[in-house]
Amino acid sequence: MSIFTKIINREIPAEIIFENDVLIVIRDINPKAKVHLLIIPKKEIYTINDLGQEDTKLIAEMFFTAQKVAKNMGVSEWYKLNFNVWEKWGQEVMHIHMHLLSDI
Ligand code: AMP
Description:
Blueprint: H1 3-8, E1 16-19, E2 23-27, E3 35-41, H2 56-72, E4 80-82, E5 98-102
Antiparallel strand pairs: 1-2, 2-3, 3-5, 4-5
This protein binds adenosine monophosphate.
The site of adenosine monophosphate (AMP) has 13 residues, from loops.
């Protein structure tokens, strides 16, 4: 079970910004910018390479959630979305997540 699934199951605390039936948005515990959020699907998918056609709706939901959360946090003027894929590129948690960063 990934650390993010433990957060989703409320076994580990986190600052939850938004949640629906398919994903959760939390504040990154080690922020690299003033606003640093993680958009995490509830389905445990190891890396972006493991996404399948059946995840199409989920991926769209992640981007629309980024758009909505950026607006609600007042950072929609400038923000960066990022996925790390595999350890070589800095993926520490093997459960896909989109980083949303902004310095506004
Ligand atoms: P990545 O390097 O792309 O796998 O990103 C993993 C991110 O998860 C890092 O930015 C960590 O700071 C963050 N992280 C790890 N554990 C927690 C946690 N318990 N609560 C919030 N963020 C976390």
